[in-house]
Write a structure and sequence with these properties.
single chain; alpha/beta; 7-stranded mixed beta sheet; 3-stranded antiparallel beta sheet; 14 helices; about 40% helix; globular
Length: about 375
């Protein structure tokens, strides 16, 4: 296995995720129970789950699951999909297949740590930072300037984790064309697709726009089903898809059979699940607006364009790292300070924290947060 640094987010979560009383930094939408998911199944899938043989499954993924995934794409079919054990395995193997010594990659920041550290373990990487002073805008000229003759991958994430930023469709299309013109694979992390505040702003899947692009998705985030551990890459480059399959032979080989059937049920019912989760975020945002309005002297707040995480700015003199540490230790309220998202590639803000807006009933956590802040005044 390629040597990699500690995964800061998971190390932090291993200490606090299941011990903090109020998990206010969750990156996934509210989940559901097994019985709740099965209630959405059609007769065929319910019978398939109840009479499932617990043997090995296909490396590419259950054919029915891949068909359900492909239904969400305009130009890609089931044969363009390969499933993985979550998005992390997919990202890790894709970068190892696409990159090697002598290659170069471009990665947008801030981003999920593995999107930066995995490529950096394989080749030279240039970072292009979203601009916090311009509402996390992406400068396509900076991406263009970062590209070299040996650039093989440009890696992006929209709606973005942790900022909630969403590009315009024209801008995203221009990015896809730039990569195609240079013969570069666009690796598009789309795990929050479907949770846009304005559904009209939903971006096309990158794999629908280009045969070279890879679209990464997972049941964990927008669907709120991380316990299934089912992710996938959609790419119309069949030779590349074959290389991904061979790489998977060295990791999980195949996915969990029960999880694949449950993911198939979720994907077929994705319209219902996503509508429920968008409504949950919409109902939650006024609570967060009111909270940050009360403490406007301490925070700069902006609701996310999409997804269920936001990246407010902390204005206190003690600094965001000490602030978040004291908050979880004294009030049991968990946030992720910006140190978790620091980049080795670009300057990144040191006064931000990630907060989650997609879980049910955040009032208790916000009230505990508010009490702690009032006591400090």
């Amino acid at each position: 296995m390629t040597r990699l640094p500690d995964f800061r987010l998971e190390t932090y979560f291993s200490r606090w995720e299941f011990t903090a009383r109020h998990h206010l930094t969750a990156s996934d939408a509210q989940t559901m129970t097994l019985s709740g998911l099965l209630a959405l199944a059609d007769d065929e899938d319910r019978e398939a789950f109840e009479n499932l043989s617990l043997g090995y499954t296909e490396t590419f993924g259950d054919p029915g699951l891949r068909e359900a995934i492909a239904a969400g794409y305009r130009n890609a079919g089931a044969d363009d999909v390969i499933c993985f054990a979550g998005a992390e395995e997919a990202l890790y193997l894709a970068m190892n297949v696409l990159l090697g010594p002598g290659d170069h990659a471009v990665v947008l920041t801030p981003n999920y740590q593995a999107a930066e550290t995995v490529p950096m373990a394989l080749c030279e990487v240039t970072g292009v930072a979203l601009d916090p002073a311009r509402d996390w805008a992406l400068d396509l000229d900076q991406v263009r300037a970062a590209i070299r003759p040996n650039t093989r991958v440009v890696s992006v994430n929209f709606p973005n984790n942790p900022t909630g930023k969403l590009l315009g469709a024209d801008e995203f299309g221009a990015l896809v064309r730039l990569c195609d013109e240079r013969g570069i694979h666009l690796f598009s992390d789309e795990v929050y697709r479907g949770l846009e505040r304005d559904p009209a702003r939903t971006l096309p899947n990158a794999a629908d726009l280009s045969e070279r692009a890879l679209s990464l998705n997972v049941t964990s985030k927008s669907l709120g089903l991380p316990g299934l551990r089912i992710g996938w890459i959609t790419c119309r480059d069949r030779e590349l898809r074959s290389r991904l399959e061979r790489a998977k032979h060295y990791t999980t080989i195949c996915n969990s059979a029960p999880s694949e059937v449950l993911a198939r049920i979720a994907l077929k019912a994705s319209g219902t699940i996503l509508a429920r989760n968008r409504a949950l975020v919409a109902a939650n945002l006024p609570l967060f607006d009111a909270f940050f309005a009360e403490f406007a002297d301490l925070f700069e707040w902006r609701a996310p364009d999409g997804g269920c995480v936001a990246y407010p700015r902390y204005l206190g003199e003690d600094g965001v790292e000490e602030f978040c540490a004291r908050l979880v230790e004294e009030a049991g309220v968990l946030l992720l300070p910006s140190g978790i998202y620091r980049s080795e590639l670009t300057p990144t803000p040191t006064d931000r924290f990630r907060i989650g807006v997609g879980r049910a009933d955040p009032q208790d956590g916000l009230e505990a947060f508010a009490r702690w802040l009032r006591e400090r005044r």
